Amino acid sequence: MTLSDVARDAPRIRSVANHIAAISRKPVQFMEFCGSHTHALLRYGIRDMLPATITMRSGPGCPVCVTSASDIDLAIAIAGMSDVIVATYGDLVRVPGTNGSLERARARGADVKVIYSALDALQIAAQHPERQVILIGIGFETTAPTVAAAIIAASRHRLSNFRVLPLLKLTPPVMAALLQLGEVHIDGILCPGHVSVITGMEPYRAIPGRFNVGCVVSGFEPLDMLQAIDMLVEQAEAGTPAVANAYERAVSEQGNEVARNVMNQVFAPCDAEWRGLGLVSASGLRLRPEYQDFDATAIYQPHVARSSEPFGCRCGDVLRGSALPQDCPLFARVCTPDNPVGPCMVSHEGACAAHFSYGIPT
Amino acid sequence: MCSVMCLAIPALILAIDGDSAEVDVGGIRRHIGTMLTPQVKVGDYVLLHTGYSIGILKREEAEETLAMFRELAEVSDAL
Fold it and tell me: For B54, which of A146, A219, A221 is closest by C-beta distance?
């Protein structure tokens, strides 16, 4: 592969960017719901390719970031228990709780293992029958079926020392809650590609009619995102917000029904606490009674002192799109990726980490 | 690469054994769970997320994405 091959795609990227600039007349504000979109938009310089009429706002689509301080504290407290191994995905270990982080707990002697796959947690449980292995279940619809599949596998293999701390969240209820709040004017949503692989297009159907907001599902390549933005601009210019799919190679109309069935076999919706948004009805997942034995909270209810958000941290506002990272007094001064105060500076999907890493738009 | 929780990457199915499979992820061989995509076949590209395939990609477009990944990596290297 040579640079001349690369140039083959550069004209396509430029031509879509030029098309957007040519058709965009009225000022519009779009929200990229997903933190991976925030990163890709900054990393590839896509924000700079857009005309001044288009403003992009980050949304709450970062699972680690929206996990409440009290849930982080609960995970840290469980890690501190004597017979426990905590298995978690990488980002979470550095997120500060009220007092320390999982990383700090590990430094004090807690057994915290970073995993790349839910299957790794099962393997750890099989290797350590004398210990309780607790998988911190954080994520959206993309991740929830994989956690459910791991629980079903544990059930089949009678792995009685494997449990999950269920902190999984659902995106349609929070998208509706955010639009209902109306705090930030939004003309269109760049919808999360990999959540939609599971959910399909159906959850977005009610949004254009109810909120006058367009919904375009996007992939994560520069061309994917530019094409999705182009579709949102066309809708906004025509005054006809609609649901559209710009990630057809991965997302089908009906989504992954098998994965949804696996998720629904193990989990049922429950109210959940979101950082920045508070309690959102039916936006979380709890284990169904038949899988209760795999619920870490059924056996571990450590005492957690009153949790609080880090002083001065505006992650909550950033997650609602009502503040930019640079509106926060701590951003890049006190709070940096090396020394994060809030979760949005820790996670690879966090808006503050993206703005810090890839430059600050004017 | 899988620590980013909503990122899924294309993987090529090399062999299937029950509800697990061996895949090629950008040149690296890994063992994954296929319970969420039971219809998967050898030669399919799947989206891999936290150890499981969560969806099957339309093949031509998956190869295009992989090629684009490589090209972007080269652009980044060249800059």
Answer: A146
